[in-house]
Write a structure and sequence with these properties.
single chain, 313 residues, alpha/beta, Rossmann fold, Elongation Factor Tu (Ef-tu), domain 3, 10 helices
């Protein structure tokens, strides 16, 4: 998959694509439906299949001090879109210049002149341009004016519930990863580089891989059964484990993070990128009066995680 970050400097081979436009946070089933419609159009046109999205997320740009909300970071999104067969990712830098373009200027300067797109697919609730003044219908009219095709994709729902990133965040906040999976079409994953922690896990007999949650929506704090993919390095592969998400209250006040104990694993994965899939919420985070009580509970947590994960196969 090729990545283009500046619409003003685009090579000939990266022009003329059929693209789906949006933020695609989580790449949920609604997003996937839009991508599949775009794939059909691209085949009909004989054009490359692309995605047009933005970094940072416009919501981050306009409200940098708001609570973290993203379901996946930029790297995880790239990885997921590549798995879906996207050929070109137009990951445009969302800055003051781009944010100040009117809807018509976005169509003329970015879609037409800059990227030379052949066809765009947008969701029925799509908004664009300064002040989010443009709608899906606006895009249809501008497509006619500037000579590119437009398809408006209907929103995807299940029993009347629209699949959305907001609904997925709610499910995760309430400790319902199974419901998040139903809307995502895949397990919710947290992808990050393994960083140095306090190394208390080693002292407790449970060495863990520590991941930062910076910038991401925080799932309900507690213990989860997880699947773990080590994505690079000598230990690359698929594993099972138990993870804790939270502030580790037994050891004082800490920045929220994710710690995962990988079953049967021994090796150095500092600096490796791993992907942790949340399978089932087991219990809330709690503060223990002693290390012995904590270890006893961790023993029970791992037994329960193994039982849950065994049922998946």
């Amino acid at each position: 998959m090729r990545i283009v970050r500046d619409y003003q400097y685009v090579g000939r081979d990266d022009r003329g694509a059929s693209v789906a436009i949006g933020n695609f946070d989580g790449v949920h089933l609604g997003h996937q439906a839009v991508i599949e419609q775009t794939r059909t159009v691209a085949k009909e046109n004989g054009s490359p299949l692309g995605i047009l999205t933005f970094e940072p997320h416009p919501r981050e740009y306009f409200a940098p001090d708001a609570p973290d909300f993203r379901l996946m970071n930029a790297e995880a999104k790239v990885h997921r879109l590549e798995k879906l067969g996207i050929e070109i990712l137009y990951q445009l830098n969302f800055n003051a210049a781009l944010s100040n373009l009117s809807a018509e200027q976005f169509a003329s300067e970015v879609i037409c002149k800059g990227l030379g797109l052949r066809h765009v697919v947008v969701g029925a609730d799509f908004c664009f341009g300064k002040g989010r003044a443009g709608t899906a219908d606006t895009m249809m009219e501008l497509g006619k004016k500037y000579g590119f095709g437009v398809t408006i994709a209907e929103l995807v729902s299940d029993n009347g519930e629209i699949f959305s990133s907001t609904a997925i965040r709610t499910a995760l906040s309430e400790g319902r990863p199974e419901d998040a999976k139903r809307m995502l079409g895949h397990w919710h994953r947290i992808d990050a580089e393994v960083i140095n922690g306090d190394q208390r896990g080693r002292e407790l007999g449970y060495p863990t891989a520590n991941l930062s949650l910076d910038g991401l929506h925080l799932p309900k704090f507690g213990v989860y059964a997880v699947l773990v993919d080590i994505l690079d390095g000598p230990h690359k592969g698929k594993y099972q484990g138990a993870a804790s998400i939270g502030m580790r209250p037994t050891f004082g006040v800490n920045i929220p993070n994710l710690e995962v104990f990988i079953f049967g694993f021994s090796g150095d994965i500092y600096g490796a990128t791993i992907s942790v899939a949340l399978i089932a919420f087991q219990r809330p985070e709690e503060k223990f009066d002693s290390l012995e009580a904590l270890i006893t509970q961790m023993d029970a947590d791992c037994v329960e995680s193994r039982r849950i994960l065994a049922a998946l196969t």
